[in-house]
Amino acid sequence: MNNNRGNQYFERFRAWLAPYYHRFKRRLGKVWHRYQLTRWLITIVLAVVFILSAVLTFQAKTANVGDLKAQLEKTTYIYDKKNQRAGSLYAQKGTYVSLDHISTNVQKAVISTEDRNFYHEYGFSVKGIARAFFLLAKNKLLHRDYISGGGSTLTQQLVKNAYLTQEQTFTRKLKELFLSVEVENVYTKKDILSMYLNNAYFGNGVWGVQDAAEKYFGTSAANLTVPQAAVLAGMLTSPSGYNPIDHPQAAKERRNTVLGLMAETGAITEQQAKAYQQTAVVTSDTYQYNDSYRYPYYFDAVINEAISKYGLTESEIMNHGYKIYTYLDENYQSSLQTNFKNSYLFPQNAADGTKVQAASVALNPNNGGVMAVVGGRGKHVFRGYNRATQITRQPGSTIKPIAVYTPALENGYFYDSMLQDKKTSYGTNHYTPKNYNNVYSGKVPMYTALAQSMNAPAVWLLNKIGVDKGYQSVKKFGLPVTKSDKNLALALGGLSEGVSPQQLAGAYSAFANDGERTEPHYIRKIVDANGNVVVSNPDVTSTRVMSSKVAKQMTSMMLGVFNSGTGATAKPYGYSVAGKTGSTEADATGDGDATRDKWIVGYTPDVVLATWEGFDNTNQNHHLENLSGAGVGPLFKTEMEEILPYTKQTSFNVKDASTLAKAQQSDSSFWDNVTNGASSVGDQVKQGVNNAADTVKRWWDDAFGN
């Protein structure tokens, strides 16, 4: 009864709607006929197809397909500053062998399983494409934005692995199709099959049929038997699922399926297939991986720079056979890596075993080239966290030469100018910097304030010259500052963002290089697999930060840091080093000496070394002790003692400021003696005064230039 009533309502609705529908249909027909919409629709579809084809053809033609074989055959190598091979990068490729050295059993098994029409098609399969379109339509109806498979020839699989992502989308499938045609235009079938077999993944981190043969059967690719070849061919669809070491039963079943397919294509007879199917799968692992990723943090940094500065992708860098020339000094790098493994050079771990972390970077101040870098202690993770380049920590007192003393010299102060050393409050917020241990001397010469890392004189001096001058100086040195840093805390390293050891080393390179700073960088040149130079003149920024005269005066004062100041215990035996120490307080620990960061940055005319120590996460249970900046001394001292013997050992062209000051005081004493006897010596007094003044002026000019 209810169904009849429902049908009646539906029929009434249809009867009501019918006149409107017929009227709309007639009008649509007239419009469609009048404006010839069928032709327009066909034209639009053809135009879209044409434009899409043109774009994809252009992409295929500009993909450097002609370089593909060379890229797959060669490994990407890193070269040091002497153009010596320093190591190679991890790569998704194995030992490359020619097709003549790959058993025909493998070739037949792969073709029978993966692409029976390989020798009769031109990069793509019409049936496969039709199947792919069918699956696309099906997945769209099911609201799935991917292709479930189908349509992949060996050439397409090669292209997908070499050029494209594994994302299964229709756009990627179209790119794959056009690239496959271009590959077929450039290479023979023999080349394509060889590249495919050498670039295929076989599980357990093994790429290429040669290494797979050694990994699973202890033989070479040339000697693989039919059953062994069938096992490897069967793994191509699921390298982990059909792995004969981890899944022997699944591997055997898959092998038998492949043997059946080989019989279907005539590669072997039915009788041979049945006989082989009865045999056991016997594995033997003789594969040895040669890890030449010898300098992990340095190589990581090279990869990062190639990506960020020169537009290469990680996959291209790792797999396209580049030669990358760097500033690496293998002696420096080896010594740094060895030192980071020696626990006696570091403070004790936390009570829960957490290691004190550290980072060091050494660079050439003359060109900004990074010669060595280590970004942490413990196990290295590929392209993982590199503290030398990525941490952002407060620089503490290492910023004083940059934010305070350099702009002070530029604004009329001298190395021996007397500075106020008193506990003083500034501004409406009563900012009150304190010296270590709350010791004050009333007045102190600038070179002493710097060498002993006194806080009160530094803040007093920044207040005198103006915070903006200090802020602009920090910017010129290349350190990251924001407008919120325009306050007196800048004198003590109170930055909102913080700095990395590499940034700090780059800033100090200006002192070592007569006032000119060059942005730290790793790469000198990149050459592709065919010998074409991709990068020849690195995109590097050089900036004149200060005059040569000011740079020399700053070096003169910073020699005192290691001769008699806070870095004295870190001074490398037998060498003169200039630089600065620094440390930052650990807040909310309840310990007055709790320290978050410890820094030492030192330099000679040949090298700048910046070293940091601290915990990744500082809290009550994870902090350093002793706020004095010398805590990182054992590591820095050892590093410098092992690096400096390999440098040119260029001497500083200035003396320690305290030595100059003592000489000047000696001349002043002589002047006092002369003036005390003025009544008896008359004209000799004037001559003595003039001689003393001339002597001081000559020493000053000799030390720092005009």
UniProtKB/TrEMBL annotation:
TM annotation in the entry: 37-58
InterPro entries assigned to the protein according to its UniProt record, in alphabetical order: Beta-lactam/transpept-like, Glyco_trans_51, Glycosyltr_51/Transpeptidase, Lysozyme-like_dom_sf, PBP_transglycosylase, PCN-bd_Tpept
Domain of life, per lineage: Bacteria
Catalytic activity: Preferential cleavage: (Ac)2-L-Lys-D-Ala-|-D-Ala. Also transpeptidation of peptidyl-alanyl moieties that are N-acyl substituents of D-alanine; [GlcNAc-(1->4)-Mur2Ac(oyl-L-Ala-gamma-D-Glu-L-Lys-D-Ala-D-Ala)](n)-di-trans,octa-cis-undecaprenyl diphosphate + beta-D-GlcNAc-(1->4)-Mur2Ac(oyl-L-Ala-gamma-D-Glu-L-Lys-D-Ala-D-Ala)-di-trans,octa-cis-undecaprenyl diphosphate = [GlcNAc-(1->4)-Mur2Ac(oyl-L-Ala-gamma-D-Glu-L-Lys-D-Ala-D-Ala)](n+1)-di-trans,octa-cis-undecaprenyl diphosphate + di-trans,octa-cis-undecaprenyl diphosphate + H(+)
Residue intervals of the Penicillin-binding protein transpeptidase domain: 360-637
Residues in Glycosyl transferase family domain copies: 89-262
GO molecular function: penicillin binding; peptidoglycan glycosyltransferase activity; serine-type D-Ala-D-Ala carboxypeptidase activity
Keyword Glycosyltransferase: yes
One Pfam family this sequence matches: Transgly
GO cellular component: outer membrane-bounded periplasmic space
Keywords: Carboxypeptidase, Cell membrane, Cell shape, Cell wall biogenesis/degradation, Glycosyltransferase, Hydrolase, Membrane, Multifunctional enzyme, Peptidoglycan synthesis, Protease, Transferase, Transmembrane, Transmembrane helix
A GO biological-process term: proteolysis
Keyword Nucleotide-binding: no
Similarity section: In the C-terminal section; belongs to the transpeptidase family. In the N-terminal section; belongs to the glycosyltransferase 51 family.
Protein name: Membrane carboxypeptidase (Penicillin-binding protein)
Organism ancestry: Bacteria, Bacillati, Bacillota, Bacilli, Lactobacillales
